[in-house]
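Hi R.,

As promised on Friday, here is the backbone we talked about, encoded as structure tokens. Could you run it through your design pipeline when you get a chance and send me back a sequence?
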């Protein structure tokens, strides 16, 4: 079967020894993205030397493609080892060539070391798994390292922290290419959270006691069903049955952001999805996601995406048949 006309090609470079988890993330998520029933991506896994590639689990993974696959890719993503490693010079050269050709370059976990070795992170913001952050900083002092976030995009260069943060990075790429509705559908199919801000912290310093771990989860679900309401911290705390101070502390420990930061992020994501999937006027979109007015919607969306609501709708609209009604009820 030939490559679908609309499919974007992603070359996933397997570092050696590669983390099978890091390698599986892009293959799983990108292959679930469909546009009008057609695949949105073609994923090609490659390595400097085709054949057996060692994994961090002690197994050998057979990779059929060499780095020639990078030349035909729209996006090149280096799946890291999860450990300290020295990037293969052939991978480094391929990354430099891809960057010079204007390709989008990304990394998961310690894959950032390959990007840094290629000189692609000099003067740029980047991140890696927190256990390797200090090592990356020592080896490549010109990198503007943000060691406590999930993922970072600086122009055409993206990097993520380790393990599950790779999921957030891939969903961010899908959202950038095809919009929030497609990314959210992929997240639902993969049974993962649809949106975690890139600036969210990688790990929490004060985890919740296990017996109270569901408090904020229930309240987040309630808030998502009531985004059109003018929810306050007091409303959220009342639903959770705790004080505002306790809610804020637990919410940040569980989600990595404050309740109001999380709420604003979800409102904007809801607005993006409505712009993509409905023909609602801007004031109705703003009301349905709790942003109040069309002017408020415009200000938040421009700050988040660089696009006005009208421009965002033109670029990402999925309308072709049915206009989706918007309903909301207090649970």
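Update: got your reply. Pasting your designed sequence below so it's all in one thread:
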């Amino acid at each position: 079967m030939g490559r679908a006309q609309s499919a974007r090609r992603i070359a996933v470079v397997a570092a050696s020894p590669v983390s099978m988890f890091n390698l599986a993330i892009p293959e799983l998520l990108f292959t679930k993205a469909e546009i009008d029933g057609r695949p949105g991506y073609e994923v090609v896994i490659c390595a400097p030397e085709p054949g057996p590639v060692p994994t961090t689990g002690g197994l050998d993974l057979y990779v059929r493609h060499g780095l020639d696959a990078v030349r035909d890719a729209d996006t090149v993503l280096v799946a890291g080892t999860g450990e300290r490693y020295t990037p293969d010079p052939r991978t480094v050269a391929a990354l430099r060539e891809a960057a010079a050709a204007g390709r989008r370059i990304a990394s998961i976990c310690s894959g950032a070391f390959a990007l840094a070795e290629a000189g692609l992170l000099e003067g740029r913001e980047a991140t890696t798994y927190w256990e390797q952050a200090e090592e990356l900083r020592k080896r490549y002092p010109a990198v503007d390292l943000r060691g406590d976030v999930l993922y970072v995009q600086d122009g055409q260069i993206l990097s993520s922290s380790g393990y599950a943060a790779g999921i957030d990075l891939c969903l961010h790429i899908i959202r950038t290419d095809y919009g929030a509705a497609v990314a959210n559908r992929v997240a639902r199919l993969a049974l993962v959270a649809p949106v975690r801000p890139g600036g969210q912290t990688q790990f929490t310093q004060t985890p919740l006691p296990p017996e109270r771990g569901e408090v904020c989860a229930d309240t987040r679900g309630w808030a998502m069903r009531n985004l059109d309401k003018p929810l306050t911290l007091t409303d959220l705390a009342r639903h959770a049955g705790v004080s505002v101070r306790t809610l804020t502390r637990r919410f940040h420990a569980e989600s990595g952001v404050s309740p109001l930061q999380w709420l604003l992020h979800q409102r904007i994501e809801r607005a993006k999805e409505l712009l993509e999937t409905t023909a609602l006027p801007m004031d109705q979109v703003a009301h349905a996601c709790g942003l109040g007015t069309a002017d408020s919607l415009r200000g938040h969306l421009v700050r988040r995406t660089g696009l006005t609501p009208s421009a965002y709708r033109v670029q990402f609209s999925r309308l072709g048949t049915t206009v989706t009604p918007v309903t909301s009820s207090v649970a």
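One thing I noticed while checking it: Residues 167 and 192 are 8 Å apart (CA to CA).

Thanks again,
M.
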